[in-house]
DNA sequence: TAGATTATTGATACCAAGTATCAATTACAC
DNA sequence: GTGTAATTGATACTTGGTATCAATAATCTA
């Protein structure tokens, strides 16, 4: 979906400078499928400072180039986002492949929740875990 | 819901030893409402080693005395659990008060998800955020 | 009630994610 | 080409968490 050029364009649109460090991080990130940790990126761009890698990951997340994927143990990974709107993930616990989902909380459920609790609902986390077709046939 | 005696009994039932460190952590934990961090506990039991505090928190989580609460930024907190079955949380982003919820994913949605993705669904995270009645009237 | 046994402790050293600081550098607009 | 503001990266710090391991102590049993 994204390539280096399109991300560079996005950066320029945001008024951000195109630096070798940013280009290196973006290239490293675009090279990966599934989800990855900051360390995965750090080890692929040893010439870029640690803080800059973190800063760039954060930038890219805010620009919706990356999204954060919540794993079942509560840890967070990153992934190149296929879609820029609100969505959730289904993650294979065995191979890290990720599906981005249309499914969200039923608005009726949200209303009911607000009504019964008195809370004004502002947000939610919703992430699914399972085993993908490939991984299930591997272990069969 | 829980008191020191009942947790001690639970520990004994699990064949675990009753030690001063464990008692101190349990007492500190039972003293708190809402959600709390490991640091909150650490600072209340400075006489107990760091590793032991972590170990005890983990134990209590596995025994369903504590549950982990996911915040909107992706960080995890702990809380004394009111219920021992599968459940989710609604957290006030302003005062840390937590509601434990009956609401869960509609089984129909899960089936649909499994069917359309080919994944075998094994688990999920579902946590809600909002502002409780008290906090909303405070800022009004 | 004294051992023996085994779980538990806590000091220490790690690891990973992330932030704060700040002087040095550099991308880019003019 | 130059000025300036954005960016970098070294460093140090924070928080959550795990691994190691010798020393200690809770409990079982005789
Ligand atoms: Mn996504
Ligand atoms: Mn709970
Ligand atoms: Zn898989
Ligand atoms: Zn509140």
Helix-strand blueprint:
2 copies of one chain form a homodimer.
Chain A: H1 4-13, H2 20-30, H3 38-44, H4 50-62, E1 66-70, E2 76-80, E3 88-92, E4 98-101, H5 107-117, E5 120-131, H6 133-138
Parallel strand pairs in A: 3-5
Antiparallel strand pairs in A: 1-2, 3-4
The complex binds manganese (II) ion (2 copies) and zinc ion (2 copies).
One zinc ion is lined by residues 92, 94-95, 97, 131-132, 134-135 of chain A.
Chain A binds a DNA duplex (30 and 30 nucleotides) through helix 4.
Structure report:
- 2 copies of one chain form a homodimer.
- With 140 residues, the first copy, chain A, is α+β, with helices and mostly antiparallel strands.
- Chain A folds into 2 domains: 1-84, Arc Repressor Mutant, subunit A (Orthogonal Bundle); 86-140, 2-Layer Sandwich (Dna Ligase, domain 1).
- Chain A has 6 helices and 5 strands.
- In chain A, the strands form 2 sheets. Chain A has a 3-stranded mixed beta sheet. Chain A has a two-stranded antiparallel ribbon with strand order 1-2.
- The A-B interface holds A 68, 70, 72, 74, 76, 90, 92-93, 99, 101, 103, 106, 109, 112-114, 117-133, 136 and B 68, 70, 72, 74, 76, 90, 92-93, 99, 101, 103, 106, 109, 112-114, 117-133, 136.
- Strand 5 of chain A pairs antiparallel with strand 5 of chain B, so a sheet runs across the interface.
- The structure holds manganese (II) ion (2 copies) and zinc ion (2 copies).
- Chain A binds a DNA duplex (30 and 30 nucleotides) through helix 4.
